[in-house]
């Protein structure tokens, strides 16, 4: 273009930007500033610790439950209690965190509480048998209480570990701009894979032959020591990573959104505007206000009084594309969990032809233990693959788009688990474990990436229409909670159906079921999920 036209185009672009900023000021939306990479990595550390503990549970929960003598008919009950509680309470807590007025922030109080619950649950299910034997001498009562305490520990851990993902994602979305949200999700997936790899390696080590194993009573105590230490460090780093924007009610009629400065002090709104950050009060003017007076009412003040009935209405009235995304996420987690929860047991019973019910030190039991250890190595390969694929995703995203990444993740997982079920050999199974990591990375990134895209699209449409950004809007917390609650729903479905199938047909049915559900999910992802252009 000729220079005068270029100058005119630049001027028009500047005017458009100024108009957009002015509309943002009027709409009451705060634009988070760009975050340093180090801060995003610190924020993602909690995923490292969470997945480390998850890996320990995935590797040992089945052997632990079977070793304390849990009857087969109660096995499904363990997987049902926690997801039922989580499925009912997840959206409630997501909505509550959207309107939490704690001075520490909206999400971090929930993350801290759930982190402590995770540690308590892990302590109970890894050390329950030893704790009970210290207080009860009678063998029969000892076994009964060991089963109860171990089941309670598994339920608490699963409940908190599944629950904590929603507030973590909402925390990321609250404090980051759109570009940093994408980076943050990739760092989450990367550190999730690394944490899982380290957790599975911890399970694969024979701690009985190491000095620390001699110092403590059992290998489960050693594993708990490492898992608790790693998780506490990661949780502390996460909570200190990025200061949250607290919701503060100055009076009953108005609420102000305050941003943290570099020195982590809360300044006045006027001061922040001078520093270049967009701030505004979320207000609307009453039509019936007296002339010359401006009656200000906080829209979020009304939302704060949301009851359980109105929350249910909000969930039922989700836009169709949100519901389709939740259904596709449900298919993915049903497939993934049906394979992962029973994988070490599958390796012990099907691949190594052992039995967890055989007498200790018998050939069958030792073969089963060998299979469990090899299963830990397979899950470690899965975690490393997940971490590597989360990096490759950033390269593939411009070429394949979110739809391509979503479809490939489900397809490769479905084909991989199907081949494992048909050919249950050691080395082929270990090689195909790398495809599990592709599915894991996909589930932890793409659906939440789509949620961020949906919110961005909605905010853009509202600003174009001159509406308030927060008016009748959906909170990020409740949308992340609705998506995360699909994990609990998947566990409920698997707890009802899969336990019976395993008792009848054996562990092979788990990988075949995972393959079938993943391939069905492929079709759903391709034809039903909405992708923002």
From TrEMBL:
Regarding the membrane, this protein is recorded as: Multi-pass membrane protein
User: Which keywords label this protein?
Assistant: Membrane, Transmembrane, Transmembrane helix, Transport
Where in the cell does this protein reside? Membrane
Main location class: membrane
Q: Which InterPro entries match?
A: MFS_trans_sf (IPR036259)
Q: What stretches pass through the bilayer?
A: 52-70, 76-97, 109-126, 146-164, 185-202, 222-239, 330-352, 404-423, 429-452, 480-505, 511-532
- Provide the protein name: Membrane-associated transporter protein
Species in which this protein is naturally found: Nestor notabilis (Kea)
Species lineage, top-down?
Eukaryota, Metazoa, Chordata, Craniata, Vertebrata
């Amino acid at each position: 273009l000729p220079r005068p036209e270029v100058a005119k185009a630049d001027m028009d672009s500047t005017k458009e930007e100024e108009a957009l900023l002015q509309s943002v000021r009027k709409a009451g939306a705060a634009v988070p500033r760009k975050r340093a990479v180090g801060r995003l990595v610190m924020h993602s550390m909690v995923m490292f610790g969470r997945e480390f503990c998850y890996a320990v549970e995935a590797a040992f929960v089945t052997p632990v439950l079977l070793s304390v003598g849990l009857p087969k008919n109660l096995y499904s009950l363990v997987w049902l209690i926690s997801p039922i509680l989580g499925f009912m309470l997840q959206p409630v807590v997501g909505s509550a965190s959207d309107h939490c007025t704690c001075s520490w922030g909206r999400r971090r109080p929930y993350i801290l509480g759930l982190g402590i619950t995770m540690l308590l649950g892990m302590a109970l299910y890894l050390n329950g048998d030893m704790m009970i034997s210290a207080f009860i001498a009678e063998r029969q009562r000892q076994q009964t209480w060991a089963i109860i305490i171990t089941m309670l520990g598994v339920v608490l851990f699963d409940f908190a570990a599944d629950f904590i993902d929603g507030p973590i994602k909402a925390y990321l979305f609250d404090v980051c701009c759109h570009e940093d949200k994408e980076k943050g999700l990739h760092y989450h997936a990367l550190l999730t894979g690394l944490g899982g790899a380290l957790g599975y390696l911890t399970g694969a080590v024979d701690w009985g032959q190491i000095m620390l194993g001699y110092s403590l009573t059992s290998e489960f105590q050693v594993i708990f020591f490492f898992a608790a230490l790693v998780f506490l460090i990661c949780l502390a780093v996460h909570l200190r990573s990025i200061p949250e924007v607290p919701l503060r009610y100055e009076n009953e009629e108005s609420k102000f959104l305050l941003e943290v400065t570099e020195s982590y002090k809360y300044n006045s709104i006027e001061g922040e505007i001078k520093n270049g950050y967009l701030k505004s009060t979320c207000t609307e003017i009453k039509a019936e206000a007296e002339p010359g007076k401006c009656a200000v009412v906080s829209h979020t003040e009304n939302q704060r009084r949301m009851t359980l009935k109105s929350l249910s209405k909000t969930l039922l009235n989700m836009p169709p594309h949100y519901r389709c995304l939740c259904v596709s996420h449900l298919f993915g987690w049903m497939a993934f969990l049906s394979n992962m929860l029973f994988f070490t047991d599958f390796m012990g019973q099907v691949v190594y032809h052992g039995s967890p019910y055989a007498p200790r030190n018998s050939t069958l039991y030792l073969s089963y233990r060998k299979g469990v250890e090899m299963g830990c190595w397979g899950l470690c390969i899965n975690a490393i693959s997940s971490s590597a694929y989360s990096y490759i995703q950033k390269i593939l995203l411009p070429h394949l788009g979110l739809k391509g990444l979503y479809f490939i993740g489900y397809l490769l997982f479905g084909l991989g688990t199907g081949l494992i079920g048909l050919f249950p050999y050691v080395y082929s199974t270990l090689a195909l474990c790398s495809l599990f990591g592709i599915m894991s990375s996909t589930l932890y990134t793409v659906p939440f990436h789509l949620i961020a895209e949906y919110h961005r699209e909605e905010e853009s449409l509202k600003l174009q229409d001159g509406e308030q950004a927060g008016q009748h809007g959906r909170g990020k917390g409740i949308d992340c909670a609705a998506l995360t609650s699909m994990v609990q729903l998947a566990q409920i479905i698997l707890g009802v159906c899969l336990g019976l199938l395993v008792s009848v047909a054996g562990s092979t049915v788990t990988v075949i079921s995972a393959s079938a559900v993943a391939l069905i999910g492929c079709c759903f992802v391709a034809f039903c999920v909405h992708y923002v252009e």
